[in-house]
Design brief:
The protein is α/β, with parallel strands linked by helices. Helices cover about 40% and strands about 15% of the residues. The protein has 13 helices and 13 strands. The protein has helices at about 5-15, 20, 35-50, 65-70, 70-75, 110-115, 115-135, 175-190, 215-225, 245-260, 275-285, 310-315, 325-335, and strands at about 25-30, 55-60, 80-85, 100, 140-145, 195-200, 205, 230, 240, 245, 265, 275, 290-295. The strands form four sheets. The chain has a seven-stranded parallel sheet with strand order 3-2-1-4-5-6-11, with helices on both faces. A two-stranded parallel ribbon has the order 7-10. A two-stranded parallel ribbon has the order 8-13. α7 (about 115-135) packs parallel to α8. The termini are close together.
Length: about 350
Amino acid sequence: MSVDIEDLNLIANKLAKDFLFFKNKRIFLTGGTGFFGKWLLETFLFLNTQHNLNISVSILSRSPEKFKESYPHISSHERFVYIKGDVKSFQDNTEYYDLIIHAATDASSGRNQTETELMRSTIMDGTKRICDFAKKVNCQRILYTSSGAAYGPQPESMSHISETFVDNPFFNDNDAYASAKLESEKYLKANSPCDVVIARCFAFSGPYLPLNGSYAFGNFIENILNEKDIIIKGDGTAVRSYLYAADLVIWLLRLLSSGTNKEIYNVGSPVSISISELASTINNVGSKKTNIYVSSKASQKSIYVPDINKSKVELGLDVYTSLDAAIEKTLYFYKKNVKVNVTY
């Protein structure tokens, strides 16, 4: 199971001017076995083997053995070391690290509703632990993958939400995930011993995205693969946008190399699409005759789409992969790697 060489070449081509920054760097990565983490590890592996960047990565994981068994092509790389532990309480080691990518957070909507204290603790205690660790290992820069949820609900009158939008009157302090993400950002900016860049991440698509989680894109892909009807949770009017995973990696690594200290950057696509339109598009690209149903009547419209002008102007970033191409690549990956009726 590996991502397409075309995607890895895209990443390398777009990041060519960042190679000098990453050459010989030692990186500590949390969340390395998740969606973001797998793509970052695939990228570092490719950059090392094809471009001789000699990047070393220490990957924090609660279950390194399980990950190594499932992804031997990644885990066997000589420059990768796995550290067993939890982001809230992992043990110090004697290594030093130039960079930390802190990407360990479970964004599950189910956990946000049923395990709120665990959600808050994972985010806040993990952030505090990373700050303490960064000081001990002489880290130069931290990239923190936060979330667009930190804005709170996007006003219906706002088609795209920008980094300048603060003090949202609709912000819900009882939303464990959103409030903890916002609080953790503030904590990092106030307490980080080194430069810190914050990536507010929105919605994504591509290989390694869970098919049986709380992500509509992944759910619809699974429906197509198994020739099942698509059941839309809600009325289908919610508006989202989807940045492809290879594009995501380009954005994250550019933010790490060149983002301004203590600045927040939106990471996502500005191309809006309703959930109903997404279902139809995935169905059409998948060449299936799947039926599409909505599960509820009309409700208040939900929007979650970033304004990316800051990232485009300051860092030269853009969207490189169309939604149709993202769908095709994701379907191909799972058809190649996952047996039908087995969710990943």
